[in-house]
Design goal:
seven-stranded mixed beta sheet, 4 domains, Rossmann fold, single chain, 26 strands
Length: 837
C-alpha cells in the first residue's frame, strides 16, 4: 500500500503546539511499523526553512526521496480576505500534486490549518478519487460558539473545513471523546472512526538534572521558588488561564509565598498583555505568575521533571498531550474533569471542575499540602504514561488504512490532469501577473515524463565569456567529458543563472552548448529549466550570482524537490589571503562559501589542501553541517581533452626558436599579486646581471592589482629578448611553449590546485616550486622547492642551484608526479555525486 502522510502541521504555527508533536510522533511510528507498505511524506514548499529540519527527523527511517514537496502561490492565510481566492487555487494545486504521487491513501494529520499561516488542506477539492483519512482532534469551535475566533473570516473558513472533513473516507480520533463528538455533532458513521489515542515521544521521561543545569534553566525564566506548571499549548479562552490565575490567588498565603505559577507556551504579545492584566487584577505580581513564552523541548522536559505540580485546567481538549508529557516525566498531575482529560489522567481523585475557581484551588491545595498524595501521583504518573504508545497508535492507524477500501479508480499520470487543473483554476482568474505566478507554481508540481533524469552543469560564467582561466579550463574539460559520457540514466544539461523576469532562475544553455560542441546554429533557444525529483545540479563554475540565487531561495526550492545540489570549490584564497585580491573580494567569497555550504549535499574540492582549509573555515564559523560531505578530486591534466583553443601567432616559430636556443623558464597563470611574477622577474634580473643567459617566459593575461608589474614587463629592456610575455595565447600554442621550455617555475603564494604543475609534468618539464602545502601535495619529491618568502635573492639562488644540478642531471625529475586524466576526474566525480546508483 502506498501511504502518503501530510506533515504540514510540523511546518506552520502548529509546529509549536501539541498538534505538531502529535503529527511528527505518529508519523515516525507509522514509518517504524510500516511493514511492506510504502510510506511517503508530503510537505509544503511555502515553508522552505522547515524542510531540511524535517528531513533530518527521518534520517535513517525513510529515504529522502520519500519526502516530497508541493508548491503553491502565496500568501494563502485566510485571515486576510484578499488571500481567500488564492487559497482555493492552492487547495487545487496541492491535490493535483497528490494525484501525481498516486497514493492508495493520503492521511491529513490536521485539517483545520491555514487560517493564520500558509498551510493548505482540503479533501476532494480537485478529485473525488483520492482516498483520504483525517485525524479528528476536536470540534471545539463547533461545540463552543463562545470559544470561536471572533475574526470576521473565521466562521466561513471553519465551516468550509467542516464540509471538507465530512468528505473524508476514514477518521482517526485522538480520543474516545473526540470520536463521540464527530458522531454526535457531524453525524459521521461511527464505523468510519477509529480511536488511535495519542502518546509522547520517548524523550519525555524521568531524568536526573545536574544542579548547575537546574539553576541555569530556572534563572533563564525567572523561577526562584518551587513551582506549579501549566503548558496550555495555546492561549484561547478554553485554556482557562483566567480561572487558574484566580485559583492561584485564592490559595492560602503560606502556599502562595512558597510557590510560583509558571505558564509555558509560545504566546502572542496581545495575549501576554491581557494575562498580565488578569494577574494584576487577581492581586498577584509578575513574580508570582511567570509567563515564559516558547520553551525548547530539552528545557520543557527539565521543567516537567522539576515542577512540584502540573495542573491542566482546560475546558475542552481533543486529547491533552501536555498532560501525558508531564506524567511521563514523573510530575504529579491534576486536571479538568471534562472531555478527554479524564481518559488521559485515569483517576477521579486527580480531577477538578474547570468552571469552578474554588474547585481548582482546592485540588491544588490538596496536592501541595499532602506529600503522600503528591508522591502517589508521581508514581502513578510514570505507570499510567506507559499505557500509551505511539507504536500502538500507529498499528491501529495502519490497520485502519488496510481495512478501508481504496477508490476503484486511482489517478494515473495523464497530461489531461494539468488540463483539469487549469480549467478549475480559471474560475479564480485574477491579473496576468498572478496567472504567470500560478503557472510557475504548477510547473513545480508536474511529474517528469522522461525516462532520463537531468544532470545539470552550471556554466553561468563561462557561457557569458570564456576568460580562459584555470577555473574555466576545468569547467570546459569536465563539461565535455560529461557530454561525451553521460552517467547512466541521466542527460547532461548545461545551464546558467539569470535574473530575467524579476526572479533568479536557471535557463538551459543550449546556444552555448551548441557552440562548444562546434555545431552550427540549429535553432535551439535558451529557456527556463524544469527540475524534478532525482535530478542533480553540479556547479564547477565560480559565479557570484550564486549568492543572489541563494538569497532568493532557488537552491532551497530545488532541494525541496529532492534535487541534489553540489559545488566545486577551487580555493578559498580570497578569504584566507584577502591581500591578494581587490577590495570586497573577501566578503563576496565569504558570502559564496556561506551560500553553497548551507545548501549543498557535496562540496568537491580540487585538492586535499583546499578541503582541509574549507572544513577549518566552516568550523571556525560554526557552519559545518553534519550532513555536508566535503571531499576532493584532483584536476585532470590532459589539455587536449579540455576543449583546447586553437591558433598560432605569425611569429610563433621565431619565439619557439628563441626558447629552445637557451635554458628557458616558464610561468603559466594569470598575472595577479599572489602568482609571484614580481619576485621572479627581480630574481632573473639578478641572474642576468651575473651573466646567466637564460629566458623567462610568462604566459597569462593581465589580472588585477598588478599595474606596476605590467609596466615593468612592458618597459623592460629584456622584453622579447630574454623576457617574454605571452598574454591570452591558445591552448595549442601553450602546449608548444611547454614542449620548448627547460624548466617550469611555480612561484604562486597560494593555489587551490596548481594545474600548470601537472601539465608541465606531462611534458616531462622539471619543476621549481614555492614550498607550500598544496604544491607538496601535488608534486611530492618530484619538484625542486624554494623557501616561501618574497626575496628575489632567495629565488635567484634556487634557480642558480637548480641549473648546477641540471647540468649534472641531478635535478629532481617530474616522473613521480601522479596525475589523472579528465576522464578519470569525471569518473571519480560521478562516484561522489551518484553514490550507489
Amino acid at each position: 500500500m502506498k501511504i502518503l502522510i501530510d506533515l504540514q502541521p510540523c511546518q506552520g504555527e502548529s509546529s509549536f503546539r501539541g498538534i505538531g508533536r502529535y503529527s511528527m510522533s505518529l508519523t515516525k511510528a507509522i514509518v517504524r511499523n510500516k511493514g511492506n507498505h510504502d510510506v511517503y511524506i508530503l510537505l509544503n514548499g511555502a515553508f522552505l526553512d522547515s524542510i531540511e529540519r524535517i528531513k533530518k527527523e527521518f534520517k535513517g527511517l525513510l529515504p529522502k526521496e520519500n519526502i516530497l514537496t508541493f508548491f503553491i502561490p502565496t500568501p494563502v492565510a485566510q485571515i486576510e480576505k484578499e488571500n481567500i481566492w488564492r487559497s482555493k487555487v492552492a487547495e487545487l494545486i496541492r491535490e493535483y500534486a497528490i494525484s501525481q504521487i498516486n497514493p492508495d491513501i493520503v492521511h491529513i494529520h490536521s485539517l483545520f490549518e491555514g487560517f493564520i499561516d500558509d498551510i493548505v488542506t482540503s479533501v476532494k477539492a480537485f478529485s473525488n478519487n483520492i482516498t483520504t483519512s483525517v485525524t479528528i482532534h476536536d470540534l471545539i469551535p463547533l461545540i463552543h460558539k463562545e470559544y470561536q475566533n471572533t475574526h470576521p473570516n473565521f466562521k466561513d473558513w471553519y465551516f468550509k473545513k467542516i464540509e471538507y472533513l465530512k468528505k473524508a473516507d476514514l477518521f482517526l480520533a485522538v480520543s474516545n471523546s473526540s470520536k463521540q463528538e464527530a458522531v454526535e455533532y457531524l453525524s459521521i458513521d461511527e464505523s468510519k472512526i477509529v480511536n488511535t489515542s495519542e502518546a509522547v515521544d520517548e524523550k519525555f521521561q524521568k531524568i536526573s538534572i545536574p544542579p548547575n543545569l537546574k539553576q541555569s534553566i530556572l534563572s533563564k525564566y525567572g523561577i526562584e521558588k518551587p513551582f506549579i506548571m501549566y503548558t496550555p499549548g495555546g492561549f484561547d479562552q478554553r485554556k482557562n488561564l483566567d480561572r487558574l490565575i484566580h485559583a492561584f490567588s485564592k490559595l492560602p498565603k503560606a502556599i502562595k509565598n512558597q510557590y510560583q505559577l509558571v505558564i509555558t507556551s509560545k504566546i502572542p504579545d496581545g495575549d501576554k498583555e491581557r494575562l498580565e492584566h488578569v494577574i494584576e487584577k487577581a492581586g498577584l505580581t509578575k513574580n508570582d505568575v511567570i509567563i515564559t513564552g516558547y520553551v525548547p523541548d530539552d528545557e520543557l522536559i527539565a521543567m516537567y521533571n522539576l515542577c512540584d505540580l502540573f495542573v491542566f485546567p482546560s475546558i475542552h481538549e481533543g486529547f491533552g498531550l501536555p498532560v501525558l508529557e508531564a506524567m511521563a516525566c514523573g510530575a504529579p498531575v491534576i486536571g479538568s474533569n471534562t472531555t478527554s482529560i479524564p481518559e488521559v489522567i485515569g483517576r477521579e481523585d486527580a480531577l477538578f471542575d474547570p468552571y469552578s475557581v474554588d474547585s481548582i484551588a482546592n485540588k491544588i491545595k490538596e496536592v501541595l499540602t499532602d506529600e503522600n498524595f503528591r508522591n502517589e501521583l508521581r508514581e502513578y504518573a510514570l505507570k499510567r504514561s506507559k499505557e500509551f504508545s505511539w507504536d500502538k497508535s500507529a498499528k491501529i492507524a495502519l490497520e485502519a488504512f488496510e481495512d478501508i477500501k481504496p477508490s476503484n479508480y486511482r489517478v494515473i499520470y495523464d497530461i489531461t490532469a494539468e488540463d483539469d487543473l487549469v480549467e478549475k483554476i480559471s474560475h479564480y482568474k485574477e491579473s496576468e501577473k498572478e496567472l504567470a505566478y500560478i503557472a510557475q507554481m504548477i510547473s513545480l508540481n508536474i511529474k517528469s515524463t522522461s525516462n532520463l533524469k537531468q544532470f545539470f552543469v552550471d556554466v553561468s560564467e563561462i557561457s557569458r565569456i570564456d576568460l580562459k582561466t584555470g577555473i574555466q579550463r576545468v569547467v570546459r574539460a569536465q563539461l565535455i567529458e560529461l557530454i561525451k559520457n553521460p552517467p547512466k540514466g541521466y542527460r547532461v544539461e548545461p545551464i546558467y543563472l539569470t535574473n530575467e523576469g524579476g526572479h533568479w532562475h536557471y535557463k538551459y544553455a543550449r546556444k552555448f552548448t551548441a557552440n562548444i560542441l562546434g555545431l552550427d546554429n540549429i535553432g535551439l533557444e535558451d529557456e527556463a529549466i524544469d527540475y524534478y525529483e532525482g535530478d542533480i545540479l553540479y556547479a564547477p563554475d565560480l559565479s557570484p550570482m550564486v549568492i543572489n540565487a541563494h538569497k532568493a531561495d532557488l537552491y532551497k526550492k530545488m532541494k525541496a524537490k529532492n534535487v541534489s545540489i553540489n559545488f566545486l570549490v577551487h580555493d578559498i584564497l580570497p578569504i584566507s589571503n584577502p591581500e591578494f585580491f581587490p577590495e570586497g573580494a573577501k566578503k563576496t567569497h565569504e558570502d559564496w562559501v556561506d551560500a553553497i555550504s548551507s545548501v549543498s549535499d557535496n562540496l568537491i574540492c580540487v585538492s586535499k589542501s583546499v578541503a582541509d582549509e574549507l572544513m577549518s573555515y566552516l568550523k571556525s564559523q560554526n557552519k559545518l553541517r553534519e550532513d555536508l560531505n566535503i571531499t576532493y578530486i584532483h584536476n585532470g591534466a590532459d589539455i587536449e581533452n579540455s576543449v583546447p583553443t586553437k591558433g598560432l601567432p605569425q611569429d610563433h616559430e621565431r619565439v619557439l626558436g628563441l626558447l629552445t636556443s637557451k635554458p628557458s623558464f616558464l610561468m603559466v597563470g594569470t598575472v595577479e599579486p599572489r602568482k609571484g611574477h614580481l619576485q621572479t622577474i627581480k630574481a632573473f634580473e639578478i641572474l642576468w646581471q651575473k651573466g646567466l643567459d637564460i629566458n623567462l617566459v610568462i604566459v597569462g593575461k593581465e589580472g588585477w592589482m598588478v599595474e606596476h608589474v605590467i609596466d615593468l614587463i612592458r618597459t623592460h629592456k629584456e622584453l622579447n629578448k630574454r623576457l617574454f610575455w605571452l598574454s591570452g595565447i591558445s591552448d595549442e600554442y601553450l602546449e608548444k611553449i611547454y614542449a620548448s621550455s627547460t624548466c617550469f617555475i611555480m612561484a604562486s603564494e597560494g593555489e587551490g590546485f596548481g594545474l600548470p604543475i601537472i601539465e608541465a609534468a606531462r611534458y616531462k618539464l622539471p619543476i621549481i616550486a614555492r614550498d607550500i602545502p598544496v604544491f607538496r601535495e601535488i608534486a611530492g619529491d618530484s619538484a625542486y622547492y624554494f623557501p616561501n618568502d618574497k626575496s628575489p635573492q632567495t629565488l635567484a639562488n634556487t634557480i642558480e642551484n637548480w641549473l648546477n644540478l641540471y647540468k649534472e642531471n641531478k635535478h629532481p625529475k617530474p616522473y613521480g608526479i601522479i596525475y589523472i586524466t579528465w576522464k578519470e576526474n569525471v569518473k571519480r566525480l560521478l562516484e561522489v555525486l551518484l553514490g550507489g546508483e
